């Protein structure tokens, strides 16, 4: 069931969001120590913010703000917090998000309408292939949303292809919720154990943590490798703990649909000004309907493009395209600007590459250096040259490439404290990050 606001006219959606925005600003000004101080320090009269365009009068909120003043974002007494979730911070320590009972209901609603968008319906069975513990919000959100939809859930958790296939063959799920690269491990296990994957119950997978689309919405190298062998529909989704909201594709596969009742979206340039229509910029959002820790003009660090033409599914809401890269992970290499997803796509083009990581460092001149470590299954004598030529053809530059073993890479890529593979290690002088 598509929420009425998502099939309303663009003008109706805008008016709806502007009323919600005024309510939000009054709420955080009265209840958030951070925002009441933030507005006062910047001489912001919140009653002057009446339209979406007026958002530009407000300063942005950054991940550094959230890290430094974490507790000051809380708008409710501690005894109203039902769940504690954490996400990585920019300064080392994780950032805590408290959720009230109302926030958990909102989270369930978000996931329910997102999964409905991807075609999951009441009575289906879904295999949840991500952790629900370790203070991660995602697994809990998925479970709550599916429960709200009256959908059966198989809580298998991450990893262990044998257990995944045992559950599929025993309980016949229609959909999987998984990191897409793990589907390659599922395919490999099935081939080794004579499981006919295209005769299984699975018809689709909600893909989390990794992109399965190019910027034109065609299948990227990872999703092509999956669907060449397994005839299932892959649905891309974009979400974060901070926004407590998901952008999930419908069956037309042309970007993650926006839920205007839950979030206001902007895409900003380096000067925090809205980009021109069709241009890419940093996704920035304002949450609606969150009780414990709402955020105003929060910069995600993700570079995306918005798509505003109506979708064939009937929704008139904007859509978020595949993440081009993270702003802080932009690489300037030999005069060329690169983001990790572009390198991921090239590496995923090669069937022989079993595993890989990308390491970024600063050299003595202060410029970026790239080292890619790869584990290769039975490489040919000219494999490295073919890989370098492919990099040069696609990106105009060739990074340094080093051969290693899958055993050496696996503990780095599959960190037990992460719900998705970590393949990017940023060790530059200006800070470090991992994705």
What does this structure look like?
- This protein has 435 residues and is α/β, with parallel strands linked by helices.
- It is built from eleven helices and 21 strands.
- The chain has helices at residues 10-31, 33-41, 63-68, 101-117, 137-148, 161-171, 180-192, 221-227, 340-348, 383-395, 406-413, and strands at residues 83-87, 95-99, 125-128, 152-155, 175-178, 204-207, 233-240, 245-248, 256-257, 263-268, 280-287, 298-307, 319-320, 325-326, 331-333, 336-338, 353-362, 368-376, 400-404, 424-426, 433-434.
- The strands form five sheets. Strands 4-3-5-6-7-8 form a six-stranded mixed sheet, with helices on both faces.
- Helix 4 (101-117) packs across helix 5 and helix 9 (340-348) crosses helix 10 (383-395).
- It is globular, with a radius of gyration of 22 Å.
- The mean pLDDT is 93.
Strand content: 15-25%
Question: Could you give a short account of the major beta sheet?
Answer: 6 strands, mixed
Gap from first CA to last CA: 35 Å
Poorly predicted tracts of residues: none
What is the strand tally? 21
Query: Which strands sit side by side, in order, in the main sheet?
Result: 4-3-5-6-7-8
Radius of gyration: 22 Å
Mean residue pLDDT: 93
Brief digest:
The chain is an alpha/beta fold and 435 residues long.
Itemize the secondary structure elements and their pairings.
Layout: H1 10-31, H2 33-41, H3 63-68, E1 83-87, E2 95-99, H4 101-117, E3 125-128, H5 137-148, E4 152-155, H6 161-171, E5 175-178, H7 180-192, E6 204-207, H8 221-227, E7 233-240, E8 245-248, E9 256-257, E10 263-268, E11 280-287, E12 298-307, E13 319-320, E14 325-326, E15 331-333, E16 336-338, H9 340-348, E17 353-362, E18 368-376, H10 383-395, E19 400-404, H11 406-413, E20 424-426, E21 433-434
Helix pairs in contact: 1-2, 4-5, 6-7, 7-8, 9-10
